[in-house]
Amino acid sequence: MASVPVINLRKGHAVRHNNDICVVSDYELKTPPRMASYVQMSIRSITIGKVYNLRMTSNESMESVNLNRDSHEYSYKDGDGYHFMHPETFEDVLLGDDKVKDVKKYLIEGQKYLIVFADEVVAGIELPPSIVMEVTEAPEGVRGDSANNVYKTATMETGLDVQVPLFINRGDKISVKTEDGSYLGRAN
């Protein structure tokens, strides 16, 4: 593998640290006055989940690990974990709670997601920018609450709570931004 200067790393890059594959989860280049610049970063091990907080000088390097992204369809969840199927090879990829904990409120059966592999080990799941979900619970809008930007909390089919306008009702399909779980609009 190639060695890469730490100043060239960014969030989402994979590196080898202590003979373990880690993904950069937080990165900041600091340049204090009259001092040498340094990089403050957090990296998360993809095998054990441990987070390392590192402070390295800007001229240090780390070993880079190639990431591969492959589209898989979310099939179902059972006692073993979350099952994803490759659409061409029909290979089943089983992920535990630790790999999907940040994205499980966006997992819908039949939806395609990018699974990120680092040296044939699953590093995580990349969500699309937005996803269409069905509203399963939404309180009725109160008559007279017609001021601009009035929202209510609606629960989606995955259990995600989203702030939606008063006109959204149970059974409606809406588009949700996966970055922050915000309402984008009605979907067809």
Question: Could you explain how this protein is built, in words?
Answer:
- The chain has 188 residues and is mainly β.
- The chain folds into three domains: 3-65, Roll (SH3 type barrels); 67-126, Beta Barrel (OB fold (Dihydrolipoamide Acetyltransferase, E2P)), CATH 2.40.50; 130-186, Beta Barrel (OB fold (Dihydrolipoamide Acetyltransferase, E2P)).
- It has one helix and 16 strands.
- It has one helix at 97-100, and strands at 3-5, 14-17, 20-30, 38-45, 51-57, 61-65, 67-78, 81-85, 92-95, 112-118, 121-126, 130-137, 151-156, 161-165, 173-177, 182-186.
- A six-stranded antiparallel sheet has the order 1-6-2-3-4-5, with no helix packed on it. It has a five-stranded antiparallel sheet with strand order 9-8-7-10-11.
- A hairpin with a 2-residue loop joins strand 7 and strand 8 (81-85).
- It is flat and about 60 Å long.
- The model has no long low-confidence stretch (mean pLDDT 88).
Give the termini distance in whole angstroms: 46 Å
Task: Tally the helices.
Answer: 1
Strand content: over 45%
Shape annotation? flat
Please give the share of residues in helix.
under 10%
Assigned CATH class of the largest domain: Mainly Beta
- CATH fold field value of the largest domain: SH3 type barrels
Number of domains: 3
In N-to-C order, the SSE pattern is EEEEEEEEEHEEEEEEE
Report strand order across the widest sheet.
1-6-2-3-4-5
The CATH architecture classification of the largest domain is: Roll
Instruction: Let me know the number of strands.
Output: 16
Quick check: average pLDDT?
A: 88
- What is the radius of gyration computed over CA atoms, rounded to a whole number of angstroms? 21 Å
